[in-house]
Amino acid sequence: MAEHLPAQPLPNWRRAVLKVGSNLLAADGGGLTPRHARALAAFIGDSHAQGRQVVLVSSGAVAAGRALLRERALPGDDLAARQALAALGQAPMIALWQSLSPRPVAQVLLTHDDLRHRRRYLNARATLRELLLLDVLPVVNENDTVAVDELKLGDNDNLAAIVAALVDADLLLIASDIDALYDADPRRVPSAVPVPHVSTLTAEVMAMAGGSGSAVGTGGMHTKLEAAVKAGAAGVPTVLFDGRNTETVAALAAGQLHGTLFDAPRSRMQARKYWLRHAPAAPGSILVDDGAARALAGGRASLLPGGIVGADGEFHRGDMVEIVDVTRRPVARGLSQYGAAEVRRLAGRHSSAIDAVLGYSYGAEIVHRDDLVVLAEVHS
């Protein structure tokens, strides 16, 4: 463990996203190796034993795919070739993590379109939430096979930051082959000094980053700083550490970081509530009775169909909608799991009747409490 990186406490966390780069998984002779992944998997296991949840964002599929074709003429390095290699390598990459995990591993392939479109965003969010409830280890990767330009632009550092916001993580952990952010590239400047704590990601800090340092990866320090910016905007602090150092990885389970901590400018809850309060709303609203209005005003309740009186206007699944009482006074706003026509059919019903009424169900809540912000206090 590097002497110039003394231990500092990790931020408190219950749910984290761990990003593991391909340079930690690629074997010297090609393919994948558990050499560094074993300690990282042990950290995940220790975290689960402590009652915490981890979502893994893992690179390595392209490197694994290339190894499967080592006895054949390898394809070129254009986008289509790398997409083919990623498709080949997904199975061995998932198999590696399953071999190291006592819990079931679930593969989740995403593109940025899945996270930009609100309905697909809700689908991805619901799937990951359910996997965590089932005590499964989700292994997320970009769906490189169908991506157009995301393979280079949508590197897994940035994808991990987006996933951290998607699952309401408390912390983003980036395992790399470098132990910290340095004030210059330590491979070229021997006198470079590590930076253990970054309170604000200024232009000067961003200028410390260089390009990719790995032949098998798609990102470098710059993408890690971009990820820290994205995560910070969602209220999620980021830590960068050396995933090759078993002592550094083991210390994480004890709440100690030997690396760089990037603060978030505001708390996760503050960032999410701010977004929910100010994101554009659809031209429609959900009407609720007095009991539901009071429950929502408490700030800890989801909106269930039983408290709904009706719906005005038109909106779709995933839209931001206003929730109003019978006098049309705004009570809350949030992301609706159901469209306006569906809400009208479900109004006043019990959650258990959703499947029978619609023939399908997106969940028991019309608006989940994690996707809702209170606008007004409601008195009895």
From TrEMBL:
<keyword id="KW-0808">Transferase</keyword>
<keyword id="KW-0547">Nucleotide-binding</keyword>
<dbReference type="InterPro" id="IPR036974">
    <property type="entry name" value="PUA_sf"/>
</dbReference>
<feature type="binding site">
    <location>
        <begin position="218"/>
        <end position="224"/>
    </location>
    <ligand>
        <name>ATP</name>
    </ligand>
</feature>
<dbReference type="InterPro" id="IPR001048">
    <property type="entry name" value="Asp/Glu/Uridylate_kinase"/>
</dbReference>
<keyword id="KW-0028">Amino-acid biosynthesis</keyword>
<keyword id="KW-0067">ATP-binding</keyword>
<dbReference type="InterPro" id="IPR005715">
    <property type="entry name" value="Glu_5kinase/COase_Synthase"/>
</dbReference>
<feature type="domain" description="PUA">
    <location>
        <begin position="284"/>
        <end position="367"/>
    </location>
</feature>
<dbReference type="InterPro" id="IPR011529">
    <property type="entry name" value="Glu_5kinase"/>
</dbReference>
<protein>
    <recommendedName>
        <fullName>Glutamate 5-kinase</fullName>
        <ecNumber>2.7.2.11</ecNumber>
    </recommendedName>
</protein>
<keyword id="KW-0641">Proline biosynthesis</keyword>
<dbReference type="InterPro" id="IPR019797">
    <property type="entry name" value="Glutamate_5-kinase_CS"/>
</dbReference>
<dbReference type="InterPro" id="IPR036393">
    <property type="entry name" value="AceGlu_kinase-like_sf"/>
</dbReference>
<feature type="binding site">
    <location>
        <begin position="176"/>
        <end position="177"/>
    </location>
    <ligand>
        <name>ATP</name>
    </ligand>
</feature>
<dbReference type="GO" id="GO:0003723">
    <property type="term" value="F:RNA binding"/>
</dbReference>
<dbReference type="InterPro" id="IPR001057">
    <property type="entry name" value="Glu/AcGlu_kinase"/>
</dbReference>
<keyword id="KW-0418">Kinase</keyword>
<dbReference type="GO" id="GO:0004349">
    <property type="term" value="F:glutamate 5-kinase activity"/>
</dbReference>
<dbReference type="Pfam" id="PF00696">
    <property type="entry name" value="AA_kinase"/>
</dbReference>
<dbReference type="InterPro" id="IPR015947">
    <property type="entry name" value="PUA-like_sf"/>
</dbReference>
<dbReference type="GO" id="GO:0055129">
    <property type="term" value="P:L-proline biosynthetic process"/>
</dbReference>
<dbReference type="GO" id="GO:0005524">
    <property type="term" value="F:ATP binding"/>
</dbReference>
<dbReference type="GO" id="GO:0005829">
    <property type="term" value="C:cytosol"/>
</dbReference>
<feature type="binding site">
    <location>
        <position position="59"/>
    </location>
    <ligand>
        <name>substrate</name>
    </ligand>
</feature>
<feature type="binding site">
    <location>
        <position position="144"/>
    </location>
    <ligand>
        <name>substrate</name>
    </ligand>
</feature>
<feature type="binding site">
    <location>
        <position position="19"/>
    </location>
    <ligand>
        <name>ATP</name>
    </ligand>
</feature>
<feature type="binding site">
    <location>
        <position position="156"/>
    </location>
    <ligand>
        <name>substrate</name>
    </ligand>
</feature>
<dbReference type="Pfam" id="PF01472">
    <property type="entry name" value="PUA"/>
</dbReference>
<comment type="pathway">
    <text>Amino-acid biosynthesis; L-proline biosynthesis; L-glutamate 5-semialdehyde from L-glutamate: step 1/2.</text>
</comment>
<dbReference type="InterPro" id="IPR002478">
    <property type="entry name" value="PUA"/>
</dbReference>
<comment type="function">
    <text>Catalyzes the transfer of a phosphate group to glutamate to form L-glutamate 5-phosphate.</text>
</comment>
<comment type="similarity">
    <text>Belongs to the glutamate 5-kinase family.</text>
</comment>
<keyword id="KW-0963">Cytoplasm</keyword>
